[in-house]
Design brief:
By secondary structure, this protein is α/β, with parallel strands linked by helices. It has one domain: 3-Layer(aba) Sandwich (Rossmann fold), CATH 3.40.50.720. Helices cover 40% and strands 15% of the residues. The chain contains 13 helices and 15 strands. A 7-stranded parallel sheet has the order 3-2-1-4-5-7-12, sandwiched between helices. It has a two-stranded antiparallel ribbon with strand order 6-15. The longest helix has 21 residues. It is globular.
């Protein structure tokens, strides 16, 4: 796809089909990354929020690069329609419960692995299951794919809350996860690091801080509250977010930077966003009054993604563009995933 096509952005997104096309539209950098990657690619946990569009972008980028490879999506596929959609788009699918040892062992040997499997929402009250999926499972996957190249999702939650004026945590800063979910995510990183060092497995860890599209994301959470007149708690007063399509492109580029010991890289947008100001802007666009409650705390969960921009380039979709798209989508009653980010949680209880 020509670079001009990748950079052209519509004024509005009319339907889910157009949204899915945009989320999976490969950038020139993603196409170059897939051109330089040898062998097939497997996406473990393809059924989540990010997995489908990421697998589709890998497929489209590989095709655009003229590279013949299988892109394999692995999930339980509790929604059969998703499996059919992925197959129709040239993605092979395998039904698998990754925590079942026999099913994991039966997966094909593949040189490139995208690891998306994780548990966050509902982790409070299910701490044991959270640790099993976020810490134990990565170890089993590392054993299975010790000769592969792995790009694995982590989260900005491995960092502590930091003073807003610092501009976000850097990859070399001390880690300080708050709550069991965040601690299990640090455990996931440590497990990947251990097996990477023992087996020499190249790994890249994506510390993602709030991917966003029109059906979910912290900007969607704020817009929905504004639309129906719910109060917005601004105690967690500052946030980062990135368009999911930009996140997808950066994730594919991370294969070229996987290393042993692992590379950890923050992936998020370039701005420290004021929740209050975002809500007020959305209120103007939606012609709704905005009621904020609480006072902004001096610290927040923030990441600095300057390393990602040096490695992968900057996001193509701006925050202002996301806000326009999302408010228009919400005004028209566009579909949502009904999966709140809980970006305003400060005690780590998800």
């Amino acid at each position: 796809m020509p670079a001009s096509d990748c950079q052209h952005l519509p004024e509005t997104i009319e339907n889910v089909e157009q949204l899915e096309e945009l989320l999976s539209r490969p950038t020139p950098e993603a196409i170059a990354a897939m051109a330089g990657l040898e062998g097939d690619l497997i996406v473990l946990g393809v059924g989540g929020k990010i997995g489908p569009s990421l697998a589709r972008m890998a497929r489209r980028a590989s095709d655009a690069a003229g590279v013949r490879r299988r892109v394999i999506g692995v999930a339980r596929f509790s929604t059969p329609a998703l499996e059919r959609q992925l197959q129709a788009q040239g993605i092979d699918t395998i039904r698998c419960e990754l925590l079942h040892a026999e099913q994991l062992a039966a997966l094909p040997e593949v040189p490139n692995v995208l690891y998306l499997a994780a548990m966050k929402f509902g982790s409070t009250g299910q701490e044991a299951a959270t640790w099993a999926r976020n810490v134990y499972l990565p170890g089993r996957v590392c054993e299975k794919y010790r000769h592969s190249r792995i790009v694995a999702y982590s989260t900005g939650n491995v960092y502590p809350l930091t003073p807003v004026e610092r501009g976000g945590s850097l990859e070399g800063d001390p880690l300080g996860p708050v709550g069991e979910y965040a601690m299990s995510c640090l455990g996931r990183e440590r497990v990947f690091a251990h097996f990477s060092q023992v087996a020499g497995t190249p790994v890249a860890l994506i510390r993602l801080n709030y991917a966003c599209e029109l059906r979910y994301g912290l900007l969607v959470d704020v817009a929905q509250k504004v639309l129906v007149g719910e109060p917005i708690d601004v105690t967690m007063g500052y946030v980062n977010t990135i368009w999911q399509g930009d996140n997808n492109a950066m994730t594919l580029q991370a294969f070229g930077h996987a290393a042993s010991p692992p590379l950890a890289v923050n992936v998020t947008g370039p701005e420290t966003l004021s929740v209050r100001q975002v809500a007020e802007q959305m209120g103007e666009l939606l012609n709704r009054p905005v009621r904020c409650v609480g006072n902004e705390a001096p610290d927040a969960l923030l990441s600095n993604a300057s390393l990602a921009y040096r490695l992968f380039g900057r996001p193509q979709v701006s925050t202002s563009q996301m806000i326009r798209w999302i408010t228009d989508w919400c005004r028209r009653g566009g579909a949502t995933l009904n999966k709140a980010t809980h970006f305003d949680v400060r005690d780590g209880k998800f």
